[in-house]
PCI domain-containing protein (Starmerella bacillaris), 360 residues
Amino acid sequence: MVVLTANNAELLDIHYHSQIKGTNIKSRLKLWTPLLKSASNPNDIGLLVTYIKALTEFCNVNPRWATTALRKNCEYLTALSVKETDQSTLEDVASALRAAFKVTLVDNENEQHKMGRTLECYSMSVCLLALYVHMRAYTLAEGILQATIQYHDNIPPLESSPPQVQTKFLFYKGCLKFFKLDYASAVQCFEQSLDVVQYRIPTVQFEHIMAYLIPAKYLHSHKVPSPAVWEALPKLKELYNPLFLACRQGNWSEFETLLKTRSALLSDSRILLSLEAMSSIVRLNLLHRLWLIKGSPKRLELEDFALSLETAKVIPQGVPALEAAEFYIAQLIADGEVKGYIHDEYKLLLLSSTSAFPNL
């Protein structure tokens, strides 16, 4: 293996003509895939970007073995880059990965190699999705998903990719749905990502997926994990379960306190924003508890709910309690969490005689 330097990307052609031509695929891969641990500086992102750009050009005229080498290097580059914070460096990486991804979308130059480059399409898309999520460039990440849809006739189906690739692709797709507050679709993607590998993945990766799936499922259907799942995920139980208990109890002050103590742990992800959105669930449960205390009547006075909100210190400073109560109830009705309507003149909440709280 020739040690790579920033000035010798042309070694690709030298290797091809002097060492690789005529050898079998296994030997080609051994020569072409850089053994980065033995390179002079295996963590040099700039060097690796240079190498990948040159290898991408080479893949345009060569069979699948070159694309496999490209994919392995892109995966290594991605693993390094998701720990990087310099925006300029990340943009250089994104540029190199985009070019590599485009190579795998179409392979029509030679019928013999028609499925050669495209076989790595989803592997390369996972690299870009991981980088864009790290950069919080969610619009660009959505563009990658759209590209796989647009070129679906040219590329093999996702199911033909290795299970780990399918799992990661579905996970990042779920993350993008989660960030858009589409929790139903997010839950579906996360569950599919685990079903692909039948939950047989490293513990760290399983916890990472469940860190999103658990709040997504709670926000979508108010469902919490079973005791068996909590037992298998003690860290996530400690993180989420107290929040869910506070939500179910309608305990606003406890919920706010717990959220503040967890903000540092979740500040680097979009999970925190979704947990903050659980405040509507706290208000829902507060209303539900009031309804139960009153004997499950068909009508509730808004003033009673306003008093509950004041006691729980839910109302923003300067907002009249009755106005806040009416606003929050209207919001819950619009979200489908409460079945009924507000009688504005008498300041009453008139509830449906069947399933007044359909999700509780």
